[in-house]
Design brief:
The protein is α/β, with parallel strands linked by helices and 426 residues long. It has 14 helices and 16 strands. It has helices at 11-31, 34-50, 52-68, 73-79, 83-97, 137-148, 162-179, 195-201, 216-225, 248-260, 280-292, 301-306, 334-345, 358-367, and strands at residues 106-111, 117-124, 127-132, 152-156, 186-188, 209-213, 238-242, 269-275, 296-299, 310-312, 326-332, 350-354, 372-375, 395-396, 404-405, 412-419. The strands form 4 sheets. Strands 10-9-11-8-7-12-13 form a 7-stranded parallel sheet, with helices on both faces. Helix 6 links the parallel strand 3 and strand 4 (152-156). Helix 2 crosses helix 7 (162-179), helix 3 runs antiparallel to helix 7 (162-179) and helix 13 packs parallel to helix 14.
């Protein structure tokens, strides 16, 4: 079904039909070899490269329509493709195709005294629903990751990216056909009817997992309404803590990159924490680096005393995901104060420390309860590609199943195989 086609059937019937076809496809995917799955993904990558001019034209039309509709600059940035980003999408697919296939991996073997032997083996999750906004690259990334992990997927992209998504879906379909895999393995849910999202969320027994990628409103709705298990993060309220032991040049570089490399990504820093014991020159250098680069700063009294460009922060600032060139700044009492602030205001997504004192850094790594915790590195590394996963289907901040960038292993579960020779339980 076309990404922009407006359905006339009842939403529940549409999703039921698509999910059943997807479940049939999983049976064929379960028998597909690693080589066959890799061929499908590499063929999709080749098609994306070959159709770059067409994809660029479709994306320009999407961006123009989004601007006319008054969509925010942050979402426009996520929506926009250029030659470099398209090559990045294709390269990500090639990388996924070259990764080790998790399906069938033996996680653990053991034997009981009664002679029974056990194997815990990775298996696909099944049918995965991905609901996302603005980012057309998710279409290709999600399809590739789901396929390599043996899953079928139902993709529901935002209407603002419908033209771009249609081209990318065609490229994925080409890859499936080249490898002899069923087209129902990757399907696009029409973007013209919001009721279809509700039908996906209610499809218990048909869809095995829902993964939302988008703004807070979308993720909150998914988490509130879903009758299907959800892998998601709601906010990316990420922190960089600059310890008194930090190298000044390194602290400036990490803070500026964490905030300003791309302000609209979920791994962007939103709050800078500065050790009260830090030398004034160190603290001022970090604040000046951000302000000079065009970042608006909102801070507490301690931060305001360090740089006159720091405006007064409101209580809401500590809990705000700006997704813009704005950062809140707090002066804290050492690593303990930083850990306490993150526990009170963080979203368990990504937090970083800049420090030369290894004992301080190791305490931060151990006690900050976030999906990703970094030492002397930018929070913008919160990305599956940077983890060596090739691509990611999202960041999960929960504590069950998968956490952090969700890639191939996160798209599998396991079953236990038990082999005996006639044992019966007394």
């Amino acid at each position: 079904m076309s990404a922009t086609e407006i359905p006339t059937e009842i939403p529940t019937e549409i999703i039921t039909s698509m999910a059943r076809a997807a479940r049939d496809a999983t049976r064929l995917l379960a028998r597909a070899t690693t080589a066959v799955k890799a061929r499908a993904i590499r063929s999709a990558a080749a098609a994306i490269r070959a159709r770059t001019p067409e994809l660029l034209a479709a994306n320009v039309a999407d961006v123009d329509a989004a601007r006319a509709a008054g969509i925010s600059d942050a979402l426009i940035d996520r929506l926009t493709l250029d030659v470099g980003r398209i090559e990045g999408i294709a390269h990500g697919l090639d990388t996924v195709a070259g990764l080790a296939d998790p399906v069938g991996e033996v996680i653990k073997r053991w034997r009981q005294p009664n002679g029974l032997s056990f194997e815990r083996v990775r298996v696909p999750l099944g049918v995965i629903g991905i609901i996302y906004e603005s980012r057309p690259g998710v279409t290709a990334d999600a399809a590739a990751l789901c396929l390599m992990a043996g899953n079928a997927c139902l993709l529901r992209g935002g209407s603002e990216a419908a033209r771009s998504n249609r081209v990318l879906l065609d490229c994925v379909g080409h890859g499936l056909a080249q490898a002899g895999l069923p087209s129902a393995a990757v399907q696009m849910v029409p973007a013209g009817d919001r009721a279809l999202v509700g039908a996906m969320l209610a499809a218990h027994g048909l869809i095995d997992v829902i993964i939302p990628r988008g703004g807070k409103g979308l993720v909150a709705r998914v988490q509130a309404e879903a009758r299907v298990p959800v892998l998601a993060h709601l906010d990316g309220i990420n922190h960089v803590y600059v310890d008194a032991s930090a190298d000044a040049a390194q602290a400036v570089a990490v803070a500026v990159n964490s905030k300003l490399r791309r302000t609209a990504v979920c791994g962007a820093m939103e709050t800078l924490l500065v050790d009260r014991a830090a030398a004034p020159a160190l603290a001022r250098a970090v604040l000046a680096g951000l302000a000079d680069a065009g970042c608006q700063l909102r801070g507490d009294a301690g931060a305001q005393a360090l740089d006159p460009r720091v405006a007064e922060a409101s209580a809401a600032d500590w809990d705000t995901e700006y997704l813009d060139a704005i950062a809140s700044v707090a002066v804290v009492d050492g690593v303990g104060g930083a850990i306490a602030h993150i526990a009170a205001h963080g979203s368990a997504h990504t937090d970083a420390i800049v420090a030369e004192d290894a004992r301080v850094a190791e305490r931060f790594l151990a006690e900050v309860d976030s999906a990703i915790v970094l030492w002397n590195a930018s929070t913008q590394y919160a990305d599956g590609g940077e983890f060596g996963f090739g691509a990611e289907i999202g960041i999960a901040t929960g504590r069950l199943h998968a956490r952090g960038p969700v890639a191939l292993e996160g798209l599998t579960t396991y079953k236990t195989l038990v082999r005996g020779h006639g044992q019966v339980r007394p």
